[in-house]
Design a protein that fits this description.
One of its GO terms (molecular function) is microtubule binding. By secondary structure, this protein is an alpha+beta fold. The chain is 59% helix and 12% strand. α18 packs antiparallel against α19.
Length: 832
Amino acid sequence: MEKICVAVRVRPPAPELSPENGSSLWKIEDNRISLHKSLDTPITTASYAFDHVFDESSTNASVYELLTKDIIHAAVEGFNGTAFAYGQTSSGKTFTMTGSETDPGIIRRSVRDVFERIHLISDREFLIRVSYMEIYNEEINDLLAVENQRLQIHEHLERGVFVAGLKEEIVSDADQILKLIDSGEVNRHFGETNMNVHSSRSHTIFRMVIESRGKDNNSSDAIRVSVLNLVDLAGSERIAKTGAGGVRLTEGKYINKSLMILGNVINKLSDSAKLRAHIPYRDSKLTRILQPALGGNAKTCIICTIAPEEHHIEESKGTLQFASRAKRITNCAQVNEILTDAALLKRQKLEIEELRMKLQGSHAEVLEQEIFKLSNQMLKYELECERLKTQLEEERRKQKEQEHCIKEQQTKIENLNNLVTNSDFKRNQSEDFISLRKTPNGQCNVNDNSDVPGTPCFKSASHSFVVSRSNNYSGLSDFSPMVNSLGDVADEDTWMKLNKGFVADLDKLQFTPAVKCQFTPAVKCQPTPLTTATTECLPENYKEVEDLKSQIELLNNEKEGLQVKFNEQVLLNNKLMEEMTELKQETLHIKAIPNRLSESFANCKDVYKDVTVTMQSLIADKESPTVKLLFGTTEITTSLLSTLETQFSMIIDGQKVGGSLDHPLSDQWETLRVSLKNTTTSLLSDAQAQDEFLNSHNKGQETSALEGEKLKSELSTIKKRYNKVEKELCLDKQLLEALRESHEKLLKEVQLLKEERDSLDIKLSQSTQRLRVTASDKENVLKDLNVEVKRRKEIEEEIKQISTAFATRHKSFVSFHSEIKSKMQKLTTRIP
Ligand SMILES: Nc1ncnc2c1ncn2[C@@H]1O[C@H](COP(=O)(O)OP(=O)(O)OP(=O)(O)O)[C@@H](O)[C@H]1O
């Protein structure tokens, strides 16, 4: 484990502002930077120490030499490496990473240094690939291929986190890379703000993948692959100071948000491991890409840049606090090797041979193997747990999708039900109307005097036929454009919190309402045209409506069946979760075993020491060969015991211990137990023989007899202790056996559960398929119904026209009738 290397660099004051207050308020002494009030009084609360502090006169060459060089060299050796610049806008990040013509920055120096280094390594051959990307407004663009925009991040078991579709150029010399960088720079987003005429509006990541292998083509040689990331972050900015508006404002908001997430990640990582909760790497593309550099397996350095001007003091303090927290982060860098099968085999053989040499003639090997086996088992459990966890999460996601799908179906069915109810109601109305219009013998009584001029009034109760819109429609969410929803990010308060190490509540910064509605307009915004229809049913359509109704009932039944299956699936998943918890507990038990073994072993060591001390005290002639042999044996055994103790502590600390896995567990324990017993018994019997010998020679001498008694009692105490240790060992063995059995049982159960889950998965997918078919059926039904409604409307229109024509004709008939009548009256009056 090694800490991230953190340095601070103060840029020279801007020419137009210099000298603002005579001299800088920041004082640098060795690797410490502190804020001084005027008259040179230091402010104690604002004093920070880092790995390096570079003052205004420092050059990129010195920064590279002291901070980055080692990481670049390590990258050539196979370690992942990352260097990035962090700081407020215009504080000198790009100057540090890219540099100027006279003083090239870290990126250019690294490129040259990598090739110089490679030329010095004569026994390996190298393959270098480079890529250059930027994260602009939370979208990844390829700077080496402009057509590659909005690239996605993916995760792979072996490759880790990677950007899909990013162009990687294979290069053979430094100049080629520098040309590529120049071409990439052209595509980078820069913009002018009040703070910086050439301000980076995106985070850029220049990446070199360095692969190497031995030149002699030895099959035992592994391929080393390391990734070197050189990152120039965009600077945090206060909108009031940058005077940003329009595009610049949007960019500023995205920049501040991603830096805030980076700050959150650093905060969480700087907490002690116990307090550390979930690290929110996934909250931004930047933190996802930098994940290996932050708490991962890379060698990392951060250069935090600050502006010396007095009006930037608050921002500079924020940057220094960020740097202080970053300093607490530890990474676990290791050479990244890809081993071929042959290389792996050869390497393991060598390791085994080495161990054998080390522990030759001792039983420690058995213990070693045991330890290795145990650590392997633990690793296996942990991997299994991780895998099950991922599966479970996937399962839950599927469930949610299913739930969502079922809800949608429910809404549709409810709409259809409404429609059918509505149609029934209208049908009743129609029937009432028709029965009103019919004479008792079934004939239409259109000439009924009570209804003259007799136009049928289908609209009489039209308002009661209007069905209200579904909730889905009326409940459209108000969504604002994405940019406005980011308002929280860019305001100054939030910015200040960011700089003071405040952990932002990211939920506030989510785009949920706007984005959700943008992505699901079909679901949210779909109107339900049928339910707004104001139509009436005619008798000839009853049957069709009845058919539709029964179809809908069928669909409802099917939906209920699916719901039941879904509930079953939820239950099963819960069960799986319980099993997982049990498995975890088992793993904890197993993890505790090395501790217990270590204790038993320490006891064993004590007993052995007691035995040897007693033996030595029993022997009068210190120069005898027995004594020499005893001393020799004691030394060897003690050193062996110490080695084993170290191995145990390594296991407990979670380090890897080499060994072979050939023997079964119980055999190893048995061998150890027997060998310990034999050794101790032989030592004891020797000691007893010595005891008897001494006794026989000192017979009659009272003092010696007493001494003999004392020694005897000591020996019996030792014997008792030995028996106790032996029992403990037996118990441990039993415990291990029991744990192994329960683990096997659990594995079987997990297998069964997995099979069950798979079969449920299949059922679920079948159900989903059926649901889809049902949905399309429903769609068809809806279409039919639409057609029907249209037809009814047309009929209604026709009836209206007929009624109007009838009314006109009736009117003309009435007027004709009255005309005739008046004519007849006139004629009648004329007739004498
Ligand atoms: N150490 C330095 N020596 C000389 N000039 C510097 C130094 N650091 C920065 N500058 C100058 O200060 C100005 C701002 O620097 P730079 O563009 O590197 O800032 P930045 O932090 O990358 O800003 P932004 O985040 O807006 O991109 C530039 O004109 C740069 O040349």
